[in-house]
């Protein structure tokens, strides 16, 4: 006989609705849907309501998934199987500054190819799982968090320029607000319409860069940006300048892989200047045709000029200004325990989780795939906390799984080709690009990892 669920609907607020935030929301929703248990989720058998069976990520065979840490899994399955269906489904509120989900990995192509631009931005109304009555997606910007009183203050973004500050109580809060970077390596717009307009204007500008484009910064983003400009606009001269002797110099990768990426980039037609810092900031001189010519000066006295200089080096800052300083490290990243909970000692920290790019971590390269995986672990840990703290549920002690995912993998698009590194080994080539990134720069792959199938 079915027993009515006990307790109250707990409220989970998620700040940031991209890879990490959406993954947490969708997994929590699946965990708490009638008939689903953590064990079914782990076995890839969970079904999303709305009739038809849906694709569910293969948790059981995903070796790197936090769900497969053996020390916790057996116990969590047993407890969750017994208890999860006995509590009321949580209310989930996602607060997102943009008016849709944005697949950031696709930005270099979105900013160079007008046929792709609109694809990576998906309205939340197209994610039919989010139409669950327990889920609300709020267009707004989180402005402040009071950890002690468990209140989020956010400015309502639905009213255009008019800012209204609203309060929201939470039982559990998830921080998935990522990094802020500089245009044009990422978008600035908060609305799809504006984003499309900005991107199309930018593409037109690139088409007119007959004197070339210089990209400064030889990390993954600089490489992908430079290579995609050259790939989409082969007649435009493109130069990448990097201060170190090797590309990808800050990442834990083998020198053979770094050299391979350099070779691929040069084969794509990008000129690469290594081992020289830019010492003088860009000056733009407008010529008689009203075109801006930008000059940069390198530390060996060389001057380079182009129609456009893109700085892919600077300006990445975690979007965490709404959190108290004592939960952040010196660079503004959120300090977390291995369970994803804030590691501070002040009241309220254990009810707040952080994941993805905002997290202070020495665990390697920050990636969309890592944020999606961490979302599964955070959802399970919140489910476990909810059961332990739900009035009416007796003798359940929250067990938290370790969600820290050391990452020594990198998959990088280099124009028409790609390279993939994992645990010291690597592959590269046109086939690698096809297999890993498909024809949509891994947009579909990312959605599959989130467990989502979009309507055709
Ligand atoms: C050009 C480029 C190429 C990349 N290529 C790859 C790649 O090939 N493979 C890969 O795995 N990774 C790649 N990455 C890295 C990847 O994009 C990040 O690791 C990933 O986006 C992190 O996900 P996240 O959910 O933590 O943050 P994000 O994806 O940045 O999402 C954060 C969300 O929070 C919202 N937000 C921010 N502040 C607030 C606030 N105060 N209130 C409400 N909402 C807020 C933002 O609008 C955003 O939607 C690339 C990144 C860039 C910039």
Automatic annotation (TrEMBL):
Residues 11-375 form the FAD/NAD(P)-binding domain. Pfam families: Pyr_redox_2 (PF07992). GO terms for molecular function: electron-transferring-flavoprotein dehydrogenase activity; flavin adenine dinucleotide binding. InterPro entries: FAD/NAD-bd_sf, FAD/NAD-binding_dom. Residues 49-72 are annotated as: Disordered. This is FAD/NAD(P)-binding domain-containing protein. GO terms for cellular component: cytoplasm. It comes from Lithohypha guttulata.
């Amino acid at each position: 006989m079915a027993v009515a669920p006990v307790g109250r609907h707990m409220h989970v607020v998620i700040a940031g609705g991209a890879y990490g935030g959406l993954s947490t929301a969708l997994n929590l929703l699946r965990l708490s849907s009638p008939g689903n248990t953590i064990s079914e989720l782990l076995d890839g058998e969970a079904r999303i309501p709305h009739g038809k069976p849906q694709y569910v990520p293969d948790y059981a065979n995903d070796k790197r998934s936090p769900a497969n840490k053996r020390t916790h899994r057996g116990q969590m399955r047993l407890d969750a199987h017994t208890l999860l269906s006995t509590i009321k489904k949580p209310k989930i509120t996602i607060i997102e500054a943009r008016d849709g989900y944005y697949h950031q990995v696709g930005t270099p192509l979105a900013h160079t190819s007008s046929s792709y631009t609109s694809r990576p931005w998906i309205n939340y109304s197209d994610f039919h799982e989010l139409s669950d009555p327990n889920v609300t997606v709020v267009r707004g910007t989180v402005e402040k968090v009071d950890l002690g009183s468990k209140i989020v203050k956010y400015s309502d973004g639905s009213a255009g320029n008019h800012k209204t500050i609203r309060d929201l109580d939470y039982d559990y809060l998830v921080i998935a607000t990522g990094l802020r970077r500089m245009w044009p390596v990422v978008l600035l717009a908060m609305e799809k319409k504006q984003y499309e307009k900005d991107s199309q204007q930018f593409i037109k500008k690139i088409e007119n860069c007959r004197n070339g484009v210089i990209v400064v910064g030889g990390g993954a983003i600089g490489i992908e940006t430079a290579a995609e400009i050259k790939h989409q606009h082969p007649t435009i001269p493109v130069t990448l300048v990097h201060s170190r002797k090797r590309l990808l110099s800050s990442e834990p990768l083998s020198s053979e892989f770094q050299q391979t990426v350099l070779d691929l980039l040069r084969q794509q037609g990008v000129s690469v200047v290594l081992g020289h810092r830019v010492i003088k900031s860009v000056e733009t001189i407008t010529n008689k045709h009203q075109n801006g010519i930008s000059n940069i000066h390198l530390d060996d006295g060389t001057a380079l000029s182009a129609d456009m200089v893109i700085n892919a080096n600077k300006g990445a800052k975690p979007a965490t200004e709404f959190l108290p300083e004592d939960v952040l490290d010196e660079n503004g990243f959120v300090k977390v325990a291995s369970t994803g909970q804030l590691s501070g000692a002040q009241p309220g920290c254990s009810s707040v989780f952080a994941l993805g790019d905002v997290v202070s971590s020495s665990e390697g390269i920050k990636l969309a795939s890592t944020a999606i995986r961490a979302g599964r672990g955070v959802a399970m840990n919140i489910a476990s906390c909810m059961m332990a703290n739900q009035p009416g549920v007796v003798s359940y002690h929250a067990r938290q799984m370790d969600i820290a995912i050391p990452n020594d993998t990198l998959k990088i698009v280099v124009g028409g080709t790609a390279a993939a590194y994992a645990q010291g080994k690597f592959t590269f080539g046109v086939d690698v690009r096809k297999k890993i990134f498909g024809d949509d720069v891994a947009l579909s792959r990312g959605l599959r990892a989130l467990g989502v199938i979009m309507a055709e």
